[in-house]
Amino acid sequence: MTNEWSKPVRVNDDGLIITIATAAQARTFLSHAKRSRLWNEAWRKCSAAAEGRLSQDEARHAFVKATH
User: Fold this and answer.
1) Which InterPro entries match (predicted)?
2) Helix, strand or coil, per DSSP, at residue 57
3) Domains: count for the chain
4) Left if phi > 0, otherwise alpha if psi is -120 to 50, otherwise beta: which for 52?
């Protein structure tokens, strides 16, 4: 099983386009992002997926909701 998402997520961070392809990358990105209710959910789910406790798809979905 691969940890890479089947569809990477592109995030516009103040004009810089960043490509996120794993839950671990998303967790790192979120550690520098503004916090919100959606951020908290994405942080928990990306952390769980990076540690193998949650599916990559669930983590990706939460990350997309928090960043778009």
Assistant:
1) DUF982
2) helix
3) 1
4) left
Q: pTM for the complete prediction?
A: 0.81
- For residue 16, the one-letter residue type is L
DSSP label at 34? P
CA–CA dist 43, 48 (Å, integer): 8
Residue 1, SS3?
Answer: coil
Q: Cβ distance 39 to 2 under 8 Å? A: no
How far apart are the C-alpha atoms of 60 and 22, rounded to whole Å?
8
CA distance 26 to 3: 12
Tokens of 49: 């997926």
- List the domain range (segments joined by +) for residue 16: 4-67
